[in-house]
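Human: Cast an eye over this sequence-structure pair and say how the chain folds.
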Amino acid sequence: MDAPTTTLLRHLLDDRPDPAAAPAAVVAAHAVHRDGPHADVLGRLVVPDTALVATGRARSARPGPVTWPVAVDVDGGAGGVAALAGRSADGLRVEAVRTGLRDLDDPAGGVARIAAAASALEDVEVFVELPDVPGWVRAVEVVEAAGLLARVGVGPGTDPVALARRLSVLVEADLPFAAVLPAAPRSGLAVLALAMLVEALVDGAEAEEAAALLAADPDRVRSGLARWDAATAGRVRRRLRSVGTDVGAALADLEALGVLGRG
Protein backbone atom coordinates (compact mmCIF):
# COMPACT_ATOMS: atom_id res chain seq x y z
CA MET A 1 0.00 0.00 0.00
CA ASP A 2 1.14 3.56 -0.60
CA ALA A 3 1.45 5.96 2.35
CA PRO A 4 -2.04 7.55 2.12
CA THR A 5 -3.76 4.17 1.82
CA THR A 6 -1.71 2.81 4.72
CA THR A 7 -2.72 5.79 6.86
CA LEU A 8 -6.38 5.38 5.91
CA LEU A 9 -6.68 1.63 6.43
CA ARG A 10 -4.41 1.08 9.41
CA HIS A 11 -6.56 -0.68 12.05
CA LEU A 12 -9.68 0.77 10.39
CA LEU A 13 -11.81 -2.36 10.02
CA ASP A 14 -13.50 -3.70 13.13
CA ASP A 15 -14.47 -7.35 12.85
CA ARG A 16 -18.23 -7.46 13.37
CA PRO A 17 -19.38 -11.09 13.28
CA ASP A 18 -22.94 -12.36 13.54
CA PRO A 19 -23.86 -11.62 17.19
CA ALA A 20 -25.66 -14.97 17.34
CA ALA A 21 -22.52 -16.92 16.37
CA ALA A 22 -20.96 -19.20 18.98
CA PRO A 23 -17.97 -17.58 20.74
CA ALA A 24 -15.63 -20.42 19.72
CA ALA A 25 -16.55 -19.91 16.05
CA VAL A 26 -16.11 -16.13 16.37
CA VAL A 27 -12.67 -16.54 17.91
CA ALA A 28 -11.57 -19.07 15.29
CA ALA A 29 -12.65 -16.83 12.42
CA HIS A 30 -11.09 -13.72 13.95
CA ALA A 31 -7.80 -15.55 14.50
CA VAL A 32 -7.58 -16.21 10.75
CA HIS A 33 -7.69 -12.47 10.03
CA ARG A 34 -5.44 -11.48 12.94
CA ASP A 35 -2.80 -13.98 11.83
CA GLY A 36 -3.26 -13.19 8.14
CA PRO A 37 -1.44 -10.91 5.70
CA HIS A 38 -3.66 -7.88 6.37
CA ALA A 39 -3.55 -7.80 10.17
CA ASP A 40 -2.51 -4.13 10.04
CA VAL A 41 -5.93 -3.28 8.56
CA LEU A 42 -7.74 -5.10 11.35
CA GLY A 43 -9.12 -3.09 14.26
CA ARG A 44 -11.11 -4.52 17.16
CA LEU A 45 -13.26 -7.58 17.50
CA VAL A 46 -16.86 -6.50 18.21
CA VAL A 47 -18.42 -8.55 21.02
CA PRO A 48 -21.91 -8.27 22.57
CA ASP A 49 -21.71 -7.60 26.30
CA THR A 50 -23.62 -10.81 26.95
CA ALA A 51 -20.88 -12.82 25.18
CA LEU A 52 -17.80 -11.06 26.60
CA VAL A 53 -16.85 -13.69 29.19
CA ALA A 54 -17.55 -16.63 26.88
CA THR A 55 -15.54 -15.03 24.08
CA GLY A 56 -12.64 -14.45 26.47
CA ARG A 57 -12.81 -18.07 27.55
CA ALA A 58 -12.69 -19.20 23.91
CA ARG A 59 -9.76 -16.88 23.21
CA SER A 60 -7.81 -18.19 26.19
CA ALA A 61 -8.30 -21.75 24.95
CA ARG A 62 -6.25 -20.96 21.84
CA PRO A 63 -2.44 -20.81 21.79
CA GLY A 64 -0.68 -17.45 21.90
CA PRO A 65 -0.14 -14.92 24.67
CA VAL A 66 -1.41 -11.84 22.84
CA THR A 67 -4.62 -10.26 24.13
CA TRP A 68 -7.07 -9.08 21.50
CA PRO A 69 -8.56 -5.58 21.49
CA VAL A 70 -12.35 -5.65 21.56
CA ALA A 71 -15.26 -3.24 21.29
CA VAL A 72 -18.25 -4.22 23.40
CA ASP A 73 -21.77 -3.66 22.09
CA VAL A 74 -24.12 -2.69 24.93
CA ASP A 75 -27.90 -2.56 24.53
CA GLY A 76 -28.77 -1.10 27.91
CA GLY A 77 -27.76 2.54 27.47
CA ALA A 78 -26.25 4.10 30.60
CA GLY A 79 -27.12 1.07 32.72
CA GLY A 80 -25.32 -1.28 30.37
CA VAL A 81 -22.25 0.96 30.30
CA ALA A 82 -22.16 1.15 34.09
CA ALA A 83 -22.38 -2.64 34.31
CA LEU A 84 -19.09 -2.96 32.40
CA ALA A 85 -17.11 -1.19 35.11
CA GLY A 86 -14.67 -3.65 36.63
CA ARG A 87 -15.54 -6.45 34.22
CA SER A 88 -12.79 -8.23 32.34
CA ALA A 89 -12.34 -11.29 30.17
CA ASP A 90 -9.25 -13.45 29.82
CA GLY A 91 -7.44 -12.94 26.55
CA LEU A 92 -9.38 -9.80 25.67
CA ARG A 93 -8.69 -6.09 26.23
CA VAL A 94 -11.78 -3.87 26.24
CA GLU A 95 -10.82 -0.71 24.36
CA ALA A 96 -14.23 0.58 23.33
CA VAL A 97 -17.90 0.43 24.28
CA ARG A 98 -20.73 1.15 21.88
CA THR A 99 -24.25 1.85 22.99
CA GLY A 100 -27.43 3.66 22.06
CA LEU A 101 -30.02 5.85 23.72
CA ARG A 102 -33.00 4.38 25.53
CA ASP A 103 -34.93 7.63 26.00
CA LEU A 104 -35.54 9.01 22.51
CA ASP A 105 -37.64 11.84 23.91
CA ASP A 106 -34.58 13.35 25.63
CA PRO A 107 -31.44 12.45 23.63
CA ALA A 108 -29.24 15.06 25.32
CA GLY A 109 -30.27 13.79 28.77
CA GLY A 110 -29.62 10.21 27.68
CA VAL A 111 -26.12 11.16 26.56
CA ALA A 112 -25.47 12.89 29.88
CA ARG A 113 -26.46 9.71 31.74
CA ILE A 114 -24.18 7.62 29.53
CA ALA A 115 -21.34 10.07 30.15
CA ALA A 116 -21.83 9.75 33.91
CA ALA A 117 -21.74 5.94 33.64
CA ALA A 118 -18.66 6.08 31.41
CA SER A 119 -16.70 7.95 34.05
CA ALA A 120 -16.22 4.62 35.84
CA LEU A 121 -14.41 3.13 32.83
CA GLU A 122 -10.67 3.65 32.45
CA ASP A 123 -8.95 4.01 29.07
CA VAL A 124 -12.09 2.97 27.18
CA GLU A 125 -13.58 4.90 24.26
CA VAL A 126 -17.36 5.23 24.48
CA PHE A 127 -19.33 5.56 21.23
CA VAL A 128 -22.97 6.63 21.34
CA GLU A 129 -25.41 6.05 18.50
CA LEU A 130 -27.57 9.13 17.98
CA PRO A 131 -30.81 8.38 16.13
CA ASP A 132 -32.33 10.99 13.85
CA VAL A 133 -34.93 12.25 16.32
CA PRO A 134 -35.80 15.77 17.51
CA GLY A 135 -32.97 17.11 19.64
CA TRP A 136 -30.24 14.89 18.21
CA VAL A 137 -28.09 17.85 17.12
CA ARG A 138 -28.10 19.15 20.70
CA ALA A 139 -27.12 15.65 21.81
CA VAL A 140 -24.09 15.84 19.49
CA GLU A 141 -22.91 18.86 21.46
CA VAL A 142 -23.29 16.93 24.73
CA VAL A 143 -21.37 13.94 23.31
CA GLU A 144 -18.51 16.21 22.24
CA ALA A 145 -18.43 18.13 25.51
CA ALA A 146 -18.34 14.89 27.53
CA GLY A 147 -15.41 13.50 25.57
CA LEU A 148 -17.48 10.70 24.08
CA LEU A 149 -17.65 9.71 20.42
CA ALA A 150 -20.46 9.01 17.96
CA ARG A 151 -21.58 5.83 16.26
CA VAL A 152 -23.38 5.82 12.90
CA GLY A 153 -25.20 2.81 11.47
CA VAL A 154 -25.43 2.54 7.69
CA GLY A 155 -28.15 0.06 6.73
CA PRO A 156 -29.05 -1.27 3.27
CA GLY A 157 -31.89 1.24 2.95
CA THR A 158 -30.02 4.28 4.30
CA ASP A 159 -30.67 7.42 2.25
CA PRO A 160 -27.27 8.72 1.04
CA VAL A 161 -28.19 12.40 1.33
CA ALA A 162 -29.65 11.94 4.83
CA LEU A 163 -26.49 10.10 5.86
CA ALA A 164 -24.27 12.83 4.43
CA ARG A 165 -26.26 15.48 6.29
CA ARG A 166 -25.86 13.58 9.57
CA LEU A 167 -22.15 13.13 9.02
CA SER A 168 -21.77 16.80 8.12
CA VAL A 169 -23.10 17.70 11.58
CA LEU A 170 -20.49 15.43 13.18
CA VAL A 171 -17.72 16.85 11.00
CA GLU A 172 -18.80 20.41 11.77
CA ALA A 173 -18.73 19.57 15.50
CA ASP A 174 -15.29 17.95 15.03
CA LEU A 175 -16.75 14.83 16.67
CA PRO A 176 -15.01 11.55 15.72
CA PHE A 177 -17.27 8.60 14.97
CA ALA A 178 -17.36 4.90 14.20
CA ALA A 179 -19.48 3.60 11.33
CA VAL A 180 -21.19 0.25 10.95
CA LEU A 181 -21.72 -1.15 7.45
CA PRO A 182 -23.82 -4.18 6.54
CA ALA A 183 -22.12 -7.31 5.26
CA ALA A 184 -22.04 -7.17 1.46
CA PRO A 185 -19.88 -8.47 -1.40
CA ARG A 186 -18.69 -4.91 -2.18
CA SER A 187 -18.17 -3.83 1.42
CA GLY A 188 -14.54 -2.89 0.73
CA LEU A 189 -15.68 -0.44 -1.93
CA ALA A 190 -18.30 0.89 0.50
CA VAL A 191 -15.58 1.55 3.11
CA LEU A 192 -13.51 3.53 0.63
CA ALA A 193 -16.54 5.46 -0.65
CA LEU A 194 -17.46 6.37 2.92
CA ALA A 195 -13.93 7.65 3.50
CA MET A 196 -14.18 9.78 0.36
CA LEU A 197 -17.52 11.19 1.55
CA VAL A 198 -15.93 12.17 4.87
CA GLU A 199 -13.01 13.81 3.05
CA ALA A 200 -15.44 15.82 0.90
CA LEU A 201 -17.34 17.02 3.98
CA VAL A 202 -14.10 17.99 5.72
CA ASP A 203 -13.25 20.05 2.64
CA GLY A 204 -16.60 21.86 2.89
CA ALA A 205 -18.68 20.06 0.27
CA GLU A 206 -22.45 20.26 0.49
CA ALA A 207 -24.15 17.11 1.72
CA GLU A 208 -25.90 16.47 -1.60
CA GLU A 209 -22.61 16.68 -3.48
CA ALA A 210 -20.76 14.47 -0.99
CA ALA A 211 -23.55 11.87 -0.95
CA ALA A 212 -22.95 11.08 -4.62
CA LEU A 213 -19.61 9.58 -3.64
CA LEU A 214 -21.38 6.68 -1.92
CA ALA A 215 -22.45 5.45 -5.35
CA ALA A 216 -18.99 5.87 -6.87
CA ASP A 217 -17.75 3.06 -9.11
CA PRO A 218 -14.40 1.35 -8.48
CA ASP A 219 -12.53 3.41 -11.07
CA ARG A 220 -13.73 6.69 -9.59
CA VAL A 221 -12.84 5.55 -6.08
CA ARG A 222 -9.35 4.45 -7.11
CA SER A 223 -8.68 7.69 -9.01
CA GLY A 224 -10.00 9.75 -6.10
CA LEU A 225 -7.79 8.00 -3.57
CA ALA A 226 -4.81 8.36 -5.91
CA ARG A 227 -5.02 12.13 -5.39
CA TRP A 228 -4.78 11.81 -1.60
CA ASP A 229 -1.63 12.37 0.36
CA ALA A 230 -0.90 11.12 3.88
CA ALA A 231 -2.17 14.39 5.38
CA THR A 232 -5.55 13.97 3.65
CA ALA A 233 -5.86 10.41 4.90
CA GLY A 234 -4.94 11.60 8.40
CA ARG A 235 -7.69 14.24 8.33
CA VAL A 236 -10.23 11.58 7.40
CA ARG A 237 -9.06 9.15 10.10
CA ARG A 238 -9.25 11.87 12.74
CA ARG A 239 -13.01 11.80 12.14
CA LEU A 240 -13.60 8.24 10.90
CA ARG A 241 -12.20 6.16 13.76
CA SER A 242 -13.36 2.73 12.63
CA VAL A 243 -15.73 0.86 10.35
CA GLY A 244 -17.41 -2.25 11.68
CA THR A 245 -18.34 -4.82 9.03
CA ASP A 246 -17.80 -8.36 7.81
CA VAL A 247 -14.00 -8.20 7.71
CA GLY A 248 -13.58 -11.24 5.48
CA ALA A 249 -15.81 -9.81 2.76
CA ALA A 250 -14.25 -6.35 3.06
CA LEU A 251 -10.67 -7.62 2.80
CA ALA A 252 -11.53 -9.80 -0.20
CA ASP A 253 -13.12 -6.81 -1.93
CA LEU A 254 -10.16 -4.55 -1.18
CA GLU A 255 -7.89 -7.20 -2.71
CA ALA A 256 -10.12 -7.38 -5.79
CA LEU A 257 -9.93 -3.59 -6.11
CA GLY A 258 -6.14 -3.76 -6.00
CA VAL A 259 -5.99 -1.68 -2.84
CA LEU A 260 -4.54 -4.60 -0.88
CA GLY A 261 -2.16 -7.20 -2.18
CA ARG A 262 -3.41 -10.74 -2.58
CA GLY A 263 -3.06 -12.72 0.62
